[in-house]
Task: structure prediction
Amino acid sequence: MGGQKMQGAFLVYTRSMSEMGRLLMGLGLLLLVVGGAMLLLGKSGLPLGRLPGDISYRGKNFSFYFPLATSILLSLVLSALFYLFSRFRR
Result:
């Protein structure tokens, strides 16, 4: 990995260009996968974003939307996936 240098009271991390390139490619791949999953979920007809617990208010000149139930559901699903992934990785 990158080396560490002490400079005054600050810790400065130095990374090579190849490590930064790998990081950017990994982030790009992650965005591609998340975007593809969102497209597939949008076409599947799942009511994500329209669950009974999502808060929606429409006034005359103002609208507010907060997907509370969808956020909780996604949090539970992602927590379970990351838990299973960490269990199989050991």
Notes: The chain has two helices and four strands. The first strand starts at residue 4 and ends at 7.
